[in-house]
Structure to design on (181 residues):
């Protein structure tokens, strides 16, 4: 797991505010154009400055700070993706993210609600996150791991593991030999 850090929302942060506005503006624009159009593709690349070749993000989706999201090549993200990205979100190559998945890097302090506790989320190469799953702050989902539908992932998932449930638990290991790398 990653180390947690704090963001005090009471202290003005011009760069964070500008990125939030930029992200909101581009997501709104993307909602006004055809998803498979050249204009959508251009807006997507403007929104995500670290977007791998042949990555596809199907609308609608939500994120709050797009510059903190890094998406690898050949990654496919299905509609209704939600990403609270006060921290970094790293999605490596060949990842599959199903319908209505949430990646969450931040939460509020239990006593001081204007303090965010933040930890990065890392999704390794070839992972598959099932529909309606939620990945919480500080979690790494391992290489070629599978997260079952409706799972709540609150701890790291090893490479080649299948994890399901609330909270997600590893129920089996996949054979690494069966993956082309």
């Amino acid at each position: 797991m990653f180390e947690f850090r704090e963001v005090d929302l009471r202290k003005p942060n011009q760069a964070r505010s500008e990125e939030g506005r930029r992200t909101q503006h581009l997501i709104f624009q993307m909602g006004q154009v055809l998803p498979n159009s050249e204009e959508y593709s251009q807006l997507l690349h403007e929104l995500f400055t670290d977007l791998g070749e042949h990555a596809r993000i199907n609308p609608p989706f939500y994120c709050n700070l797009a510059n903190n999201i890094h998406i690898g090549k050949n990654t496919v993200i299905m509609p209704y993706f939600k990403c609270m990205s006060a921290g970094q979100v790293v999605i490596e190559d060949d990842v599959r993210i199903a319908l209505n998945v949430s990646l969450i890097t931040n939460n509020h302090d239990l006593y001081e609600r204007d303090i965010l506790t933040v930890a990065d989320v890392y999704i390794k190469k070839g992972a598959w996150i099932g529909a309606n799953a939620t990945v919480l702050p500080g979690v790494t989902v391992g290489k070629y791991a599978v997260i079952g539908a409706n799972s709540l992932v609150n701890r790291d998932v090893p490479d080649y593991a299948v994890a399901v449930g609330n909270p997600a638990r590893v129920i089996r290991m996949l054979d690494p030999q069966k993956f082309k790398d």
Observations:
- Residues 12 and 62 are 23 Å apart (CA to CA).
- DSSP finds two helices and 19 strands in the chain.
- The longest strand covers residues 168-173.
